[in-house]
Specification:
2 domains, Immunoglobulin-like, DUF4382 domain-containing protein, four-stranded mixed beta sheet, nine-stranded mixed beta sheet, single chain, DUF4382
């Protein structure tokens, strides 16, 4: 099974970031992570083909309230996931992407048609009870703010999702049932910087990925992030000032870490 245990890799290098920092979008955004887990079932193993998920949202501050969509694909070429293995604390990162400051209204899980299960070492084809269920809409509302990382957990309830259509010979069907909720496991990093006349962009960087925010009028900023080790990079957005990098910032679950005040220095 091709799966990814949901733990971000620790650390990042400044040189790697520096080489691509010009390509980073400095507009304030939040990061959304879709996490797949499973409620245990009686079957030996269950494989479900999941293509990804479509997220519907409305951008904050837009007077027309236009509904927008963004598709988060499940990246591996083989999209058949051994959902039954995602128990006992194991989880799979189904997809992730940045979103502007906005409000999520709905998430639709997109399924393929290659599903199966194993019982007593015998494989059974698992057909959808209703072909319209290749799209599984889930009502879910959540506000996205700048500088925050959000985990959304999709709990695939296999016990309710697998129907026995016939017992002899065994024929089974898939009626996909998900429970959706907001995940935990985050900590906060906050700080302040000056001069407050500048309007810098601040990045939390881990393993080549970055999340950006901006300070308020008093120079204060806040990140909410998954547990791990980060670098905090400040781009002054002013050619007269030097940028600043703080390495090895530890984020712990439920803990708010306050950084020492950052004072951006003029270039020599």
């Amino acid at each position: 099974m091709k799966k990814l245990i949901y733990y971000f890799l620790v650390g990042s290098t400044f040189l790697g970031f520096w080489s691509c920092k010009e390509d980073i979008d400095s507009d304030p955004k939040g990061l959304v992570n879709l996490i797949l887990v499973d409620s245990p079932a009686v079957w030996d193993s269950v494989f479900v083909e999941i293509l990804g998920a479509e997220i519907e949202y409305i951008v904050d501050g837009k007077s027309d309230g236009t509904l927008q969509t963004k598709f988060l694909p499940y990246a591996p070429g083989d999209k058949k996931i051994e959902v039954s293995a995602l128990v006992g604390g194991e989880a799979l990162l189904l997809g992730r992407n940045e979103f502007p400051v906005s409000k999520i209204l709905k998430i639709t899980v997109k399924l393929g048609d290659q599903h199966s299960l194993y019982l007593d070492e015998k494989k059974y084809k698992l057909e959808l009870a209703d072909l319209s269920e290749m799209d599984v809409p889930l009502d879910f509302e959540m506000d996205i703010d700048q500088g925050f990382s959000y985990d959304i957990v999709l709990d695939f309830d296999l016990e309710k999702s697998i129907l026995v259509a016939e017992e002899n010979p065994l024929k089974v069907q898939l009626d996909p049932t998900f429970i959706i909720y907001r995940g935990a496991g985050t900590g906060e990093v906050k700080g302040s910087l000056g001069p407050t006349t500048l309007k810098p962009a601040i990045y939390a960087i881990q393993d080549g990925d970055s999340l950006s925010t901006h300070p308020n009028s008093s120079g204060s900023f806040l990140f909410r992030l998954p547990v791990g080790t980060y670098s905090i990079y400040v781009d002054p957005k002013d050619e007269l000032y030097q940028d600043t990098l703080i390495n090895n910032v530890q984020v712990e679950k439920g803990v708010t870490q306050t950084l020492e005040k950052i004072t951006l220095k003029p270039k020599p």
